[in-house]
Amino acid sequence: MNSTIKCVILDDELLAISYLKLLCEQIENVEVIKVFNDPKIFLSEINQLDCDVCILDIEMPGMSGLQVAEIISNSKKIIFTTAYKEYAAEAFDLNVVDYVRKPIKIERLNQAFDKVKEINAHSQKKDFIEWNSNIGKAVIFTNQIAYIKTSEIDSRDKEIILKDQSAIVLKNLNFKSLLEMLPSKYFAQVNKKEIIAFSSIKVFSTTEIITNIPLDNDNFLKLHIGETYKNALQEAFGKS
């Protein structure tokens, strides 16, 4: 039996909320547990709600959906809705599940929920990742991963460096979704563009990681630790 996806809706327009809620209720195994039309009230309550995904409108007075997402993106999956295509790049930078243009069609919304289902399914598979890649559908065993970085060609893609120095590119996958697939006791995000396997770390300080990943000049890869990620890394190493 498929588990139900519990979602919360935030939109400043009541008509838009009613329409979106109606669409969600027509999709199998999706339940809307609460709706909000005020970002501040949403933020005051969201951490107490048991939900799988938050559907956020981007254009709202006072506080945009992008600003809301920056606050909750580390703890909640996000689907953006907007009538404006110019926010797409910013949305992907925030590691959201999907970006759905208004007027919303049920088929397109269903695709977004399918992504949530896929992420949830992968989160149970701690020994491997299965995703579309530059060589087609690929299964990658997590114990073979040394390092992950944002692709220099397309920031929506993620390049995985394996322990044998070979590489594979996962297509259209954000870091939040990727981290949910990886076993948290073996991997951590270092900065906005890089994830490291703990088995690849030689030296760890408050600002830098020296890895055992060789570079062409006989040196080893060094990673800068972003301010946002310092506490999580210290906790992972029992130094909090």
Topology:
Blueprint: E1 5-10, H1 14-25, E2 30-36, H2 39-45, E3 53-57, H3 65-72, E4 77-82, H4 88-93, E5 98-101, H5 106-122, E6 128-133, E7 136-141, E8 145-150, E9 158-162, E10 167-170, H6 175-181, E11 187-191, E12 194-197, E13 201-204, E14 208-214, E15 220-224, H7 230-236
Parallel strand pairs: 1-2, 1-3, 3-4, 4-5
Antiparallel strand pairs: 6-7, 8-9, 8-12, 9-10, 11-12, 13-14, 14-15
CATH class of the largest domain: Alpha Beta
Give the overall pLDDT as a whole number: 89
Please give the alpha-carbon distance between the first and last residues. 40 Å
- Overall radius of gyration: 19 Å
Major beta sheet summary: 5 strands, parallel
Q: How many helix segments?
A: 7
What do we call the CATH homologous superfamily of the largest domain? Response regulator
Based on the coordinates given, report the CATH architecture of the largest domain. 3-Layer(aba) Sandwich
List how many beta strands DSSP finds.
15
Percentage of helical residues? 25-40%
Secondary structure class reads alpha/beta
Query: What string gives the helices and strands in order?
Result: EHEHEHEHEHEEEEEHEEEEEH
Overall shape: elongated
CATH topology of the largest domain: Rossmann fold
